[in-house]
Design goal:
The chain has 337 residues and is α+β, with helices and mostly antiparallel strands. The protein has four helices and twelve strands, in the order αββββββββαβαβββα. It has a five-stranded antiparallel beta sheet with strand order 5-8-7-6-9. It has a three-stranded antiparallel beta sheet with strand order 10-11-12, with no helix packed on it. A two-stranded antiparallel sheet has the order 1-2.
Length: 337
């Protein structure tokens, strides 16, 4: 009896629950239903740089009050767009994740160059696809008269950070990349390389309004400035070398003048009246006395007689030295000849 009563109560409760649920569902399908709207979502993952095509997206209904900002259900607004961030399967196609040009591919006439992120104070602020200005600092030296900072390139596209071309959310980015890859026109390569070799590169956030003509013109202006500096420096070096050569020519001429050979001749020595006379004999010129010694004095301090060597009677007593050397004086001296 008790078992039958329990079964009856359960059946009544089930019936009541079914009726209540049916009434709730009918209310949801009636005037109180949540409005829905169409939105384009990705059929499969769309990688960075891929073009948005109808094969990669589909319309899907989403609650109208939960539609993501920047989403769309208009296919024309997606025509010719490229993904600048990875879009995952089932994710709405948002305009902020699209770009008008595919900067992840290097077009004809462009090159990718790299610079150290440590050269820039904005490395943690920029993302692939952003534009930057390239400047360079030059220290005073042989070429640069003073410390100078110059704009090298303008409006250059950031191609990648550490080789990653995807624009990552802030919380997924590393604090400081090591290298920054830039995409520049091939006509700008010379300016970029010269600036990197001769100075210290730096990056600044660029004005996106700069046109491609403005960008390439900046590189031409920089190279022309460098060429002008080099020409001025070369003129200074040439002038200094010319002045040095003039000084050298004057010195060489002076040396040549001082090194003129003396005319051929000879030196001879002659004893005359107790004096030794040194003559320079040059053919065609009278003899020239170069030096002569004072006449030899007597023991008592008196000068010798002029003919003391030839007249024995004229010799004074007590002067053996004159007598001993008298044979050196006069015409009979072996040195006379």
């Amino acid at each position: 009896m008790k078992k039958s009563l329990s079964v009856l109560v359960a059946l009544v409760c089930g019936t009541v629950a079914t009726v209540i649920a049916s009434k709730w569902l009918n209310a949801q399908n009636g005037a109180g239903a949540v409005p829905m709207a169409d939105v384009f979502v990705a059929v499969a993952t769309i990688d960075v740089g891929e073009e948005i095509t109808l094969e990669k997206i589909k319309l899907e209904q989403w609650p109208a009050d939960r539609m993501p900002a920047n989403s769309t259900n208009d296919s024309e607004t997606l025509e010719g767009k490229f993904a600048k961030q990875r879009i995952y399967e089932g994710e709405p196609i948002l305009s902020i994740k699209l770009m008008d040009e595919n900067w992840t591919e290097v077009p004809d006439g462009y090159r990718v160059v790299a610079t150290k992120a440590s050269n820039s104070g904005i490395a943690n602020l920029i993302q692939p696809g952003d534009r930057v200005d390239v400047t360079a600092f030059f220290s005073a030296g042989n070429l640069f008269p003073k410390d100078t900072t110059k704009i090298v390139l303008k409006g250059v596209r950031v191609y990648a950070l550490d080789g990653i071309k995807e624009r990552l959310p802030t919380d997924e980015r590393s604090k400081q990349p090591k290298d920054i890859q830039l995409m520049i026109h091939q006509s700008e390569v010379e300016a970029f390389e010269l600036a990197g070799q001769m100075g210290k590169l730096n990056l600044l956030v660029s004005n996106s309004a700069d046109t491609e003509a403005d960008q390439t013109e900046a590189g031409k202006i920089f190279v022309a400035w460098l060429n002008q500096l080099q020409e001025e420096r070369q003129r200074e070096l040439d002038a200094a070398a010319e002045a040095k050569n003039r000084r050298g020519d004057r010195g060489a001429q002076s040396a040549r003048n001082s090194a003129k050979p003396r005319k051929q001749g000879f030196i001879t020595t002659k004893f005359e009246g107790g004096r030794m006379v040194v003559y320079e004999i040059v053919p065609g010129k009278p003899p020239v006395i170069i030096s002569e010694s004072a006449p030899e004095e007597n023991v008592d301090g008196e000068p010798p007689a002029a003919d003391a060597g030839s007249d024995p009677n004229a010799r004074r007593a007590g002067s053996p030295s004159r007598e001993a050397h008298s044979y050196l004086n006069g015409s009979d001296s072996p040195l006379y000849q």
